[in-house]
Amino acid sequence: MTAVPASITDGRALVDAAMRASAERLDPWTRRVVAYHLGWTDEHGRPAAAGGKALRPALALLSARAAATPQETALPGAVAVEFVHAFSLLHDDIMDGDRTRRHRPAAWTVFGPSAAILGGDALLALSEELLLDEQTRGAHWAARALTAATQRLISGQAFDLGFEQRGDVTLDECLTMAADKTGALLACACSIGAMLGEGPTRLVTALAEFGAEMGLAFQLVDDLLGIWGSPGTTGKPVLSDLRARKKSLPAVYALTAGTAESDRLAELYAAPEPPSEDDLREMARLVEAAGGRDWAAAEADRRVASAEKHLADSGMDDAVRAEFRDVARFVTSRDH
């Protein structure tokens, strides 16, 4: 695994302080749910070590530097993007019935589904408030972009939910869903700092296209980890995506490959009873035998290469471009 790039770790303290200050706007009960979900406190409200990669806010700060403005310019956008991401995870855990998040009980299992839903709603509203407070042309641009990305994220989640009821999901449909659910917010994260810094449209467009491709690579790796990742590293149960019979990208590739393994995998996906541990191991073997694992890994690498091409014509400083490349390559080599 590649080490976490400095671009991700260096701005974490700056963003964390801004996120905590922004969360003070929330009512005490909602703030308690949010603080727990973000890893700041335990279930009793006592301080805890924060978790999460903080990838999106790091990209927002980096995009401000790409526009030759101080990274602090991007802080409202960095916090807003991370709050939208946190909102989506709060709701996603409830929708999927996932009981753990980052090696501890998910917020909805601690505070109840209703409180977790309200916590997500509060973060979503606060994300827009933070940008609108800025009252600049760049902030207006950023707020519109974040709203559009959030709408696409919700649309992607809706399609993902709908796929659970279908046995005929195509790979193109699955890629479109991933582009919305994951790629849209990463595209926004990669460009929102440049918007707040009122950088040139050419740069903002290049950064958004870079982020969209990197978002697909991120989802492909996430799906691989959802089947073959180590629970001790990912914080998710072993074979978690297959247990839920999710239409993940490697699984859909395997299901539509037209092989004998594809047919047997489809039978296990359609079985009325929950899969046994033996079934889960067999499903993982079938996804790999039908080519899903190799395809997803190769496609993630292809998406990263495509993302890097968008940086070539961006006009940004070479050193900043190299930092974006480091982040993109980290995405495909991570183990959590």
UniProtKB/TrEMBL annotation:
<keyword id="KW-0808">Transferase</keyword>
<dbReference type="GO" id="GO:0008299">
    <property type="term" value="P:isoprenoid biosynthetic process"/>
</dbReference>
<dbReference type="InterPro" id="IPR033749">
    <property type="entry name" value="Polyprenyl_synt_CS"/>
</dbReference>
<dbReference type="InterPro" id="IPR008949">
    <property type="entry name" value="Isoprenoid_synthase_dom_sf"/>
</dbReference>
<keyword id="KW-0460">Magnesium</keyword>
<dbReference type="GO" id="GO:0046872">
    <property type="term" value="F:metal ion binding"/>
</dbReference>
<dbReference type="GO" id="GO:0004659">
    <property type="term" value="F:prenyltransferase activity"/>
</dbReference>
<keyword id="KW-0479">Metal-binding</keyword>
<dbReference type="Pfam" id="PF00348">
    <property type="entry name" value="polyprenyl_synt"/>
</dbReference>
<dbReference type="InterPro" id="IPR000092">
    <property type="entry name" value="Polyprenyl_synt"/>
</dbReference>
<comment type="similarity">
    <text>Belongs to the FPP/GGPP synthase family.</text>
</comment>
<protein>
    <submittedName>
        <fullName>Polyprenyl synthetase family protein</fullName>
    </submittedName>
</protein>
